[in-house]
Amino acid sequence: MDFTLTEEHLMIQEAAREFAQNELLPGVIERDEAQKFPTEQVKRMGELGFLGMMVDPKYGGSGLDTLSYALVMEELSKIDASSSVVVSVNNSLVCYGLEAYGSEEQKQNYLTRLASGEIIGAFCLSEPEAGSDATSQKTTALDKGDHYIINGTKNWITNGNSASVYIVIAQTDKEKGHKGINALIVEKGMPGFEIGPKENKLGIRGSDTHSLIFNDVKVPKKNRIGEDGFGFKFAMKTLAGGRIGIAAQALGIASGAYELAKKYAKVRKAFGTEIVNHQAIAFKLADMHTQIEAARLLVYKAAKDKDTGANYDLSGAMAKLYASQVAMDTTVEAVQIHGGNGFVKDYHVERLMRDAKITQIYEGTSEIQKIVISRSITKD
Ligand code: CAA
Ligand code: FAD
Question: Are 273 and 362 in a shared domain?
Fold first, then answer.
């Protein structure tokens, strides 16, 4: 497979790199510490077209391919995964789903504003008792003729407070199991829709993660995405693409930590020489470089699969599984290479290490990716 980047890809990559250096890096440590949502940075990312990258320009998007999106995710995540997760959720889980499966009215009402970055969205599947086991959700969306009534609680919702539009997956007909689930568009401010407190997290602390509480929230039927009972398939199809975005995020976190570690190893001296001259350190860098390159190829392959219309369930899951492991391994080693300095905030690698962990958990844990992969490779 040819992964040569086009002129356009290189330009987009450079634009994201410059933005990350100039506008994400300043204040990233303070935002992490204060758990401050990157409001200004998100606004700028909207202006740069990063929030609706793959959406057709007629709906306010940038009309780019998935590989461009992966390149941007990688560059942003080298510096600030709290900002890149906003890009990931808005692009992959909100805009993609609406463009692929929404009605024309939904696209006009919501997609145009989401893709241009005027507002941001959230994707609400997980619940206190239904994370990996996503079909066992308890939130209900009862069919009342021309509207649904939603009751229940969603957990861990990224952009939980900063979003204006929420795609909520809920059970309409329990008897039908996953075929009785619907995906509904809920707007902030709808009566009975309450946002719970912000989670105090290990990593991606700038991202606002909240539980959401629904008490008799009335949602018009025209806000249902797709046919009655399509909600679970909608979630699965959307997540398949989302996993490419998170894989690219993991790749970026790993690359960011590796670049910092390599730079540090070339200047820090111990025993009369730069530590890079100690083979134990040089071999760590060799392993990091090799694993990152392998992760990159998996991420680009999954992105290309999506762009060429090939099935990307398998390649996306493999990319996420592998890249998130590489992110964990690489960031731990980057802290090690920095010695004591790695343990303090000023050197950035401890944050990257904390941020890496979430890539093994959200959008399907590593164990869930192995379920997806093993089912895919063993089916007839
Ligand atoms: N595309 C289309 N349909 C799919 C599909 C896919 N990729 N994967 C599954 N389905 C369909 C199946 O075909 C099946 O339908 P049929 O009965 O008509 O064939 C239906 O969905 C149910 O599938 P399974 O029987 O395989 O369901 P399961 O209960 O065994 O669960 C699972 C499968 C893969 C484990 C799934 O539950 C899963 O992905 N769990 C993880 C949930 C997850 O990723 N959550 C992320 C939340 S969002 C988030 O985290 C965002 C963020 O952090 C930023
Ligand atoms: P559980 O499902 O309880 O899993 C616990 C452990 O058991 C895990 O190690 C898991 O891999 C393992 N396990 C479970 N089932 C199996 C099995 N069959 N085989 C082997 N091992 C298994 N969700 C959203 O819907 N929208 C969001 O925007 C969102 N953002 C998030 C942001 C953050 C910061 C976090 C922490 C989570 C977010 N999530 C979001 C939720 C996330 O997708 C879930 O946490 C994740 O899917 C795991 O679910 P769980 O936490 O309930 O863990």
Answer: yes
- Closest residue by Cα to residue 95 from 50, 126, 127: 50
Q: Is 1 part of a structural domain of the chain?
A: no
Return the C-alpha torsion angle 264, 270, 272, 277, nearest 10: -50
CA–centroid distance, residue 41 to ligand 1 (Å): 32
Which of 153, 165, 168, 361 to probe ligand 2 with, by most ligand atoms within 8 A of CB?
361
Rounded to a whole number of angstroms, the CA Rg of the chain reads 21
Of 120, 149, 184, which residue sits at a domain end?
A: 120
| Tens digit of each residue's pLDDT (9 = 90 or more) over 205-241 | 999 999 999 999 999 999 999 999 999 999 999 999 9
Question: 372 CB contacts (<8 Å, ≥6 apart)?
Answer: 313, 314, 317, 364
Q: Residue 236 is part of a domain; what is its CATH number?
A: 1.20.140.10
For residue 239, tell me if it sits in a domain.
yes
pTM as predicted: 0.98
Number of domains observed in the structure of the chain: 3
Distance CA 217, CA 113 (A): 23
- Domain identity same for 314 and 183: no
Last residue of a domain, one of 77, 95, 120: 120
| Residue 240 beta carbon below 6 angstroms from any ligand 1 atom | yes
The ipTM estimated for the assembled molecules is 0.99
Q: Are residues 221 and 96 in the same domain?
A: no
